[in-house]
């Protein structure tokens, strides 16, 4: 069936974020600005972590990978979103549509597991500070990142293959700004039960595992911090963890509300708005919440700016 789909070459028409076109120019400027901020913030973090020898701890190792995933994650969807705001109803080939879906799902799941790894790292740092170096070894950090990428790509490959095997109309309008799994299932003209079963079983396990790990890590941090006598220490930790939990809740909450519900409850309008949260908003917030509030990162950025200014003077 997949070969048949490729032979008949179905074409999908992306209708974009909004049905009306009145505010498209304003939305274009808004999302262009957000994308540039996202790229600048995340790429700056990647460069800083790679180039500054003072940022060699496991926390910054995970932050560097998270920033790289975030900029790639938004790049999969936002450029096409911007093009759709300028020219609504863009045609996308079958291959292009499913390639976008594959990378979007793979990068999204990678991000969820990296968030889990980072929460585990913080839990070890707060709850077992004397054993931090022996627990978070370079090998373990590399293994956590490698496992995140491997699980994500295997998960994405499974769902992309299952959904691409379905039959589609030769030309189908897609009420979304990218080729998402829920949209493709709603467009399919053949039986979608196998793909839906995989999403609700294997997919739910893949998404709930990092969410459970994040919840357990922050619960342990909370218990440990409540035992700290210093009010200032508790306040600083609660402030940092609270900001992290807001971003994590937005990310996982929007994903669960979009992908894990009956197909009869599908709503194109809701899906598009929820997708903006986890595909655009949280990847843009991450470098500011996780990194730019950090004194060491700020110091590294300042040193980099001073070094650049000194070079320009020479």
Automatic annotation (TrEMBL):
The GO cellular component terms are: plasma membrane
Keyword Transmembrane helix among UniProt keywords: yes
**Pfam families according to UniProt:** 7tm_4
- The UniProt record lists the G-protein coupled receptors family 1 profile domain at 41-290
Checking PROSITE patterns in the record gives: G_PROTEIN_RECEP_F1_2 (PS50262)
Q: Which ranges does the record mark as transmembrane?
A: 26-48, 60-82, 102-120, 141-163, 204-228, 240-260, 272-292
Identification of the protein by name = Olfactory receptor 1L4-like
**Location within or outside the cell:** Cell membrane
What gene name is listed for this protein? LOC100739378
Q: Per the UniProt entry, what species is this protein from, by scientific name?
A: Sus scrofa (Pig)
**Keywords for this entry?**
Cell membrane, G-protein coupled receptor, Membrane, Receptor, Transducer, Transmembrane, Transmembrane helix
Q: How does it sit in the membrane?
A: Multi-pass membrane protein
- Functional summary from the UniProt entry: Putative odorant or sperm cell receptor.
Q: Which InterPro entries match?
A: GPCR_Rhodpsn, GPCR_Rhodpsn_7TM, Olfact_rcpt
């Amino acid at each position: 069936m997949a070969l048949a789909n490729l032979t008949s070459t179905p074409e999908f028409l992306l209708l974009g974020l909004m049905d009306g076109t009145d505010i498209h120019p304003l939305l274009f400027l808004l999302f262009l600005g957000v994308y540039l901020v996202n790229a600048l913030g995340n790429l700056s973090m990647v460069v800083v972590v790679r180039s500054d020898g003072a940022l060699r701890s496991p926390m910054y190792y995970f932050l560097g990978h998270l920033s790289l995933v975030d900029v790639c994650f938004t790049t999969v969807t936002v450029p096409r979103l911007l093009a759709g705001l300028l020219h609504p109803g863009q045609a996308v080939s079958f291959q292009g549509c499913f390639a976008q879906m594959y990378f979007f799902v793979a990068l999204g799941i990678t991000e969820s597991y990296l968030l889990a790894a980072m929460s585990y790292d913080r839990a070890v740092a707060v709850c077992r500070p004397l054993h931090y170096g022996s627990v978070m070894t370079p090998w373990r950090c590399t293994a956590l990142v490698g496992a995140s990428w491997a699980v994500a790509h295997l998960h994405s490959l499974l769902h992309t293959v299952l959904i691409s095997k379905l039959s589609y109309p030769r030309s189908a309008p897609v009420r979304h700004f990218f080729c998402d799994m829920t949209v493709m299932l709603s467009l399919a003209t053949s039986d979608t039960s196998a793909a839906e079963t995989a999403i609700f079983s294997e997919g739910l396990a893949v998404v709930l595992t990092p969410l459970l790990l994040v919840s357990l890590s922050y619960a342990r941090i909370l218990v440990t911090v409540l035992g700290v006598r210093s009010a200032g220490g508790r306040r600083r930790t609660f402030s940092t963890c609270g900001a992290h939990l807001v971003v994590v809740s937005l990310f996982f909450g929007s994903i669960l509300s979009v992908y894990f519900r009956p197909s009869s409850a599908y709503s194109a309008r809701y899906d598009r708005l929820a997708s903006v949260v986890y595909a655009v908003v949280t990847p843009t917030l991450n470098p500011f919440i996780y990194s730019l509030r950090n004194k060491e990162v700020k110091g590294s950025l300042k040193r980099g700016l001073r070094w650049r200014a000194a070079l320009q003077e020479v």
